[in-house]
Specification:
Strand content: 15-25%
Helix content: 40-55%
Structural class: alpha+beta
Number of domains: 1
Largest sheet: 4 strands, antiparallel
Radius of gyration: 27 Å
Strand order of the largest sheet: 1-2-3-4
Shape: rod-shaped
Order of helices and strands: HHEEEE
Distance between the termini: 69 Å
Length: about 140
């Protein structure tokens, strides 16, 4: 009976050192994974904004072909459906045209209003398809 009890004590539980090693490994993995996860979620949120900017860009091309100029183009008079820009993170009101001239425009997507994440970026693109950058603003 004593032999059985000794074997149970040796193999039946983890030592404190073994538990501390496991906790350390889990902490190291968390330190690596959390920033990567955060960066990937921001990228996926902004992908929705970039897709919406593409929808507006197409509508602006149609507007230019009909009018011969971008002057007068606003988010209200472009032929974009009420739900075409509605997404999980971006609402239609998150898209603006900060600069419109006769031959140029700038589309701004964001920052997304339907997310609670702080410091979300916004994205700008012009008539040439050149990305003017992704900028951060505090919400």
């Amino acid at each position: 009976m004593k032999k059985f009890v000794r074997q149970t004590r040796r193999t039946g539980a983890f030592t404190l050192v073994e538990l501390m090693i496991v906790v350390t490994i889990v902490a190291i993995l968390a330190l690596i994974a959390i920033p990567l996860y955060s960066a990937n979620t921001t990228s996926s949120i902004m992908a929705e904004g970039i897709a919406g900017a593409g929808t507006i860009r197409t509508a602006l091309r149609v507007y230019y072909s009909q009018n011969g100029t971008y002057t007068g183009a606003t988010m209200n008079n472009l032929e974009i459906g009420s739900t075409d820009l509605q997404g999980k993170y971006f609402a239609q009101t998150d898209y603006t045209l900060p600069t419109v001239t006769s031959s140029t425009y700038v589309i701004q997507a964001g920052p997304p209003s339907l997310t609670t994440r702080p410091n979300m970026p916004y994205y700008q693109i012009n008539q040439l398809g050149s990305e003017l950058g992704t900028y951060y603003s505090n919400q």
